[in-house]
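assembly run, all chains below
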Amino acid sequence: MNRAIGIALLATVASSPGLAGQSRPRPVNHIRAVAQQAAPPAIPRFRFENFTTANGLPDDHVYAVLVDGDRIWAGTDNGLAEYENGRWKVYTTADGLAHRAVLSLALDKRTGAVWAGTMGGLSRISAGRIDTYTQLNSGLSNDVVYGVSVEGENVWVATAAGACRLNTRTGEWSLYNERNTPMIEIWAYGVSAAPDKVYYAIWGSGLLEYNQRTGVWDKYEDPDGENEIVLLRDQGLIHEITSSVSYVDGIVWVSTYFGDSRYDGRYWHNFLTKDSGLPSNFTNYVKGVDRNRAWFCTDKGLAYYDGTNWAVYRPSLATGKPEMMVRDAAGAVTEIPVATAPAHNYILGIDFQGRDIWVATAKGLSHGIHQP
Amino acid sequence: MTRRAVLGFGSALLLAAAALGRPPIASGTGYPSLDATEPYASPLELLLSPDGARLYVLCQGTGDIRILDTKSGQTLRTIPVGRVPRGVSLSPDGRLLFVANSWDDTVTVIDTNSETVQAAWPAGYEPSSVEENRSGTLLYVADRIGNDITVLNASTGAEQETLEAGRGASYLAMSADGSRLYATHVYPNSTPHRTPPRSEITVIDPQRAQVIGRIPLPYIAGGFHIALSRDGRLGVAAELHPKNLVPLAHVEHGWAFVDTLTVFGADVGKPVEVPLDELDRYYARPFGVAIAPDKSRIYVSHGGADCVSVIDVHRMLAYIHMHPAPFAEDLAASAHYVVTRIAVGKNPRGILLSRDGARLYVANRLDDTISVVDTRTLRVTQTIRLAGPESISPLRRGEQIFYSARYAFQGQFGCANCHIDSTFDGLQWDLEPDGFGRDIVDNRLIEDLRGTEPFKWNGGNPTLVKECGIRTEMYFWRSQNYDDLQLTDLVLYIRSLPSRPNRWRSTNGELTPAQERGRAIFNRTVDKLGLPIPQSDQCAYCHSGPKGTSQKSFDVGTKKNTDNTGLLDTPQLSNIALTAPYLHDGSAQTLEEIWTMYNPHDRHGRTNDLTKDELNDLIEYLRTR
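ok done. output:
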């Protein structure tokens, strides 16, 4: 792993050209709150429309959301919901879904098939047909599927008993766990696969990297180990308790329950509430947009980072009223007046539909309609 | 390499084989020769050139495309293609002919002007049908073993993606406007144990290369050709509707198969299954379908009945609209819309209408002829005989018997109903007349059977003569007995069926690391606790020998309350990856389930000490057998 290199280069990280545009954040308690100012132009604004059981969702608890063109998929605690042309269609175990609780979703962009990780196995939904893989009927390592990602003909799966890969052409399952990878814990929470690398967020075991070319696994851990003290800024992965990973444009975005990290293959950059615009260090899910931009789904709202500025979208923690806060590079916070917010502060997932966003929350699914 | 670049077939096939990681297979060969005689042509599929002057005949037995002059019936040219070709189509512009070669996993590209092979492209596992999209950008290949449709770049042959289709994906048809591609499959999709089979027509957007719909085919276990009317408002698929949940011995009550079509499209409304049989006469194994240009008739070839059914579309639609309830098993229905049955040659398969609809061509696979039917008089006006052996060998007679339904009561079915294209059907049958639901048995692959006797799951039949003779006649056919020669020929044919290439085993015999680890588990004699494994619990003891059977019976703890015995013949492992479900009654949907669900006491091998990844390794090895 690159841990030693990462540590050796700590002193240079803050001024690294690789982090251009990422100016050193100031502690949040030094931020001057300014109300009623216009947001910086780069920060998107949304009008949120929320979906619950009242308007078609099978359950308000939405674990995951996936956008496929004009079609939206929502993994809920009570089935998989498909939204198209203004109508919801719900798939349940009666239709062949592996389990009612759908924790993760992935799209095979080539074929249009949707893969759903559930509490009871992995299901593929293709034009209405559902094929289900479980630990009993297939080589799937465990029925609790926290994450799924499709790359080429391989489906990469994060389960409660390690990682696995299904080759859809040959039907071969390859299992990755403490016996053949550096993972110590085997709770694989998230996975993000690309043609060159596959990354796994392993709860308690940091970040695992699989090199598709060499077939070699590498591991990134919190240099502080299990200590809850960050000795040096940006020294490496922020914490061992990782919850999700997103690999975009050669950048790894990692969320943990104790802050978030960005890794460009050489340098780490970490985000904590005390020195960024994150509303909480407890992040359920992260999704990168590109090298600089990412969305963070926390227990205290949805956060957007554009490489310089931050924005938080949520119902106010104090009043429950819609709230949008923007934090600029200097740490100044601006409250933007908004009339709508995501359905709940507890955010579990996000996906993009052009400039719109779809947000999975613990109390509904939200469609963030981009506002000019 | 572009397809327009001229490439000798030999080098093209070498390239294809290299891409597959397999050694090249000699061109121009069909099925491995079953005897020492010259191979039979075995015409399977037909195409006409856009101007109607040429008839392209796919000859599966000789592994070639024969180009016939439609006027004279003379063979103008023979072009060797790949091994065991199964499907053929023309590009929309008519300049290229594509051939799906099922046993070497390639598509041969033939230039129709020069009548030469341009390229051979790797495709999926067991290509069976091929279609190019209207814009000429994508080539779709239905893969029978892959259960999918491989999408190739139509210029380079590069694989773009694979689309999940039905199990045993085999036949493709493009709508006349090129907006939809339809696919059927010959084995049923997976369903819970002892529930009716289900199949589908997979609907694909051929421009976007995505599956956009699946037309459900309840009760259907074998889907064959599909056709669309020129206006796109009527679709029709030929299929088998088995009745495998009731004892097969009740043939006299019509409880074996119904031969049906599913018709769909705007003219029909909700898809409807339409029976083709009559109350006292069956028309086994509908295979090829064609719709007249004016949509007045549907033509259906019956591979087991040696005839073509002619259906009046107007009367059929009227009947459908007057009978909204399912009537697939109402054999009186066909009298309302079947106009006539036209006798043709043996085992008629692919059928083709001339562009004006005036002539219907029928490929008679097992007598090497093409029947030409005048669709005005509905009579065969010409029979074109393809070059090949003049005499009928015993093996050929055996094959004809295998594919004929004439030996069963009312012609209800034949060997090939359950052993589709001499394989299996993915179904479980209630064979004995001992009550409903007793002694359920899973159907098995019948390739490469020598050295695997005895037969029957309880090992009750020591030879194929007994398996295929008295028992079959008594319980299945309920009808005419074979004479001695017929039975001998049939047994000779079945014994001679070769094993298809194993797609999970490299041709150089090298195993992947996972397969190698699995082999060690298969051969182990000591478990992970260091304890010796009793012989009868060692995989390699019961599944010994080159075919993975000791030819002995064992009780592996899988006896159900409905079984008369738990002592079961050890099944061979040849190509076991293809033949789900598993166990004697098909209760294990996958190889994994054999050990995750049905081996709680380690009686079916010592496996409960294995980790999940070790079990996966064992299965990876088994797939190579």
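Residues 3-16+56-309+347-371 of chain A form a domain with the Methylamine Dehydrogenase; Chain H fold (CATH 2.130.10.10).

The CA atoms of residues 261 and 270 of chain A lie 4 Å apart.

not gonna interpret more than that til we talk
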